[in-house]
């Protein structure tokens, strides 16, 4: 709860006005941030990486989710496992590097040794009565959805992940991320609350004036518009886009690429949205010239003009899958007013840098967009601190998905905390 001088969190949740942004404490309060980490990041499925982050047995990757340090490791059978990064002896971390390769998992402090399945294999000087079977590493729930890795810290994670996975697998499978590689990744610290980072992503109202690189391959009409504000020429363009979208969906689905809109952003615990959209210009990829960034296409795709599939998940990710590469994003809160945005660019595992792709061309659009968005998030964080701030109305034409993110957040917090 908030301190005695502040409005209680339950009261703020109850009085949230649909169609409006959240009240300032949701973006600034350390107490609400702590509740977010408990309820949202402690009890829901979180996107944290991709199968190619740990492609071989013994490969491991660490990350922090609030106060929880965890690591993912591929075991000898090729399965991905996740554990709390805490030795069962005195609590020292087992894995210290962001990415590494191990044989067994050995604590640096007293050499307690664990297998890749988390079982304690060796612990010297512990006496005859010591039962090693009771001191294995504490597991974390982990799932791979066609190469996208999700974890949940709760003892009992939301069961509807399997519903999402069943619906999304046919959309993602053609891109075959398990046979891709991470060509480049980059972390930036956004100067804003994690919800502001997610809200900014959930709309393109701001795109035309702030993202010159991103908007090159995008159709303006793919992100909402106000029909009553269009002149005759613009109305014709919108109608043409609608026809193109429907024709593209028919063509792509006839080739085995599910494409039509599927949206469950605020009616599931594991909220998500997906749709495959056509690209403007030469229409091949998210690049400055809209041409494919990599000569080797992903998976079983044989035509670079299969559009761009987007996939969003609540509470912390968005992704773009093109014919030639994929870009995946995760948001991990650091404190009430800072968030880690981690972006990874993936290409076919056999693609050769300098021959099939260049890092500059591959990353140019989203690297610039991330920096621009980070600045915008900072502006909103500055505004939320002002005593003049009050919740403002969302555009019903271009910010409806921001509203759904806030609906999801309020509903999940309320369900956990009770009214």
From TrEMBL:
Single GO molecular function: iron ion binding
All residue ranges annotated as the Rieske domain in the record: 45-151
Protein origin, superkingdom: Bacteria
InterPro entries reported in the protein's UniProt record: Rieske_2Fe-2S (IPR017941), Rieske_2Fe-2S_sf (IPR036922), Ring_hydroxy_dOase_asu_C_dom (IPR015879), Rng_hydr_dOase-A (IPR001663)
Cofactor(s) required, per the database record: Fe cation
Keywords on record: 2Fe-2S, Iron, Iron-sulfur, Metal-binding, Oxidoreductase
PROSITE patterns the record matches: RIESKE
Protein name as it appears in the record: Rieske 2Fe-2S family protein
Organism listed in the record: Ancylobacter rudongensis
